[in-house]
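Sequence of BolA-like protein 3 (Oppiella nova).
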Amino acid sequence: MSFKNFYSKLLKMNFIFRSVSQVTTKPETRISDILRQEFPKATEIVVNDISGGCGAMFEIHIQTSEFTGLNTVRQHLKVNHALKNEIKDMHGIRIYTSLPRN
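Predicted 3D structure, token representation.
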């Protein structure tokens, strides 16, 4: 198995684990829930608190066919729009978007 395939499977397992785990913080869970509602066709949504625990900086990975035909800037704008109320309280956000592989 290539590293790329391994990493992809690891991310999917992480998404499943975070969906049912108590490990996630309340802000991570809230952000994930909002993104799942906004992007119901997403095959991957991963939200990580990268602030060191204060809950003010997040890294977000979203893979969905709903980004088809949109450049990266427009994809990120859609994510920003979905999280407009939460972003007000953040120090920073890293957004990574992609389309599912066929």
